[in-house]
Structure formats: C-alpha cells, structure tokens
Amino acid sequence: MGNTEMGIAGFPRSTEMFGGKFLIQSQVGSSGSSDACEAPIRIRLLTRAEIPGAQKLRFAVWAAEGVAVKCPATKKIACSHDHHSVHWGAFDGDRLIGSARLCIHATVEEAPDGHLFVHHQIPLPVASLNRLVLEKAYRGLGIGKALDHVRVEFARRAPVRALLATAVNRESRMLAFRKMGFQFLPGTQGTASWADNFAIYLCVRIFLSDEVPVQ
Fold this sequence. Notes:
Blueprint: E1 4-6, E2 12-14, H1 16-20, E3 23-26, E4 39-45, H2 51-64, E5 86-92, E6 95-105, E7 126-134, H3 143-157, E8 162-168, H4 171-179, E9 183-191, E10 199-206
Parallel strand pairs: 7-8
Antiparallel strand pairs: 1-2, 3-4, 4-5, 5-6, 6-7, 8-10, 9-10
C-alpha cells in the first residue's frame, strides 16, 4: 500500500490510497482552456498551510455561481470545522482547482449541520462529507467523484459507523450520493450555514459491519 506516514490529524497518509492512484488525465490545462496540453490532475491531502487556499476557492467558485455567500467581504468560506478536518485538494500543476473536506465526530450534534440530523437514529461515531468545490472548467472529468471516493474510503478505514452529508438540489449531485450508497432522509431540508439562498438535503450512509476494518 505505498509508503505511509502520519498525515493530517494523526491519520495515516498513503500515497497510493489518497493520491497516487487518483491521477485524472484532463484536456483542461492550467489556463482552463480545453485545448491546453494534456496533464494529470493530482489529488492529495492538503497541508495546514494550504487550507486558506481552499477557503478562498470555495468563495470564488460559489459566489461566481450566484450563491449569496455570508460575509462576502472576507473573500473566503471558512468555519471552525476547518481546523480539525481532513482536507484534500485537486491540483492542475501547482494550482488548486478543487477541494473537499471530511470531519470525524463523536456525536451527530458536533457535525456541520448536525442539528438537522439529531432526530434520526444514526450509529456512532460519524463522519461528515462537506465543502466539495471544483472550478467549472474542470467539471465532468471525474475529479469530484475521485474526491468523494477518497473521503468515503478514509472514513471507512478510520473507522466510523456512518457518513453524513448534505446535498445541493442538483440531480447530478444527488445521483452521485445515491451511487455511493447514501440514503436521503425523507422530508429533511435545510439551508447551508454559509449562504442564505442555498437549500441542502440530508443523506446518510451506514457502514455495514463487514465494511469496517477490525481494529
């Protein structure tokens, strides 16, 4: 399984699991032009010093798409969960073009948007998938799917019993969650904590006992 070292938040970092094998050949280069030279998009864990770049990327992408981001003067989307989360980035060369985050929690209430999940029976501990962002020019290449895959696998090996997520009201994103084994909770909808006009829908994946490694 590749060389392993202690990564962010004390979790093992494996270049094979969390980076090396997720090389996506893209026709989109650093300029965002589809006729740029072909280059691999690399996905790897972010360092603490790189997290502010992910926070700025969230703002730049979502604000450009018309999301009413709270506190726009900061030019970033950040919260306290960023400090204890594990973050991945997708890079075109040295440029960050996508990122995603995973948090692990002892209780449902601790999770981002956890108050929306508390009335449901969810086994503990839990992890939450959130803050997936990708520049528009790089969508449709499987990068978002790869960022989802590394986070789900990371949570499974942590291990946790359940994964929480909130999906935006887009058919493609909701379908992606269903393909990953998530179930949408009926009648559950909320608003993103970082935007006033962004509806979110709750979903959960429960790991079966044979999916979780024996410790």
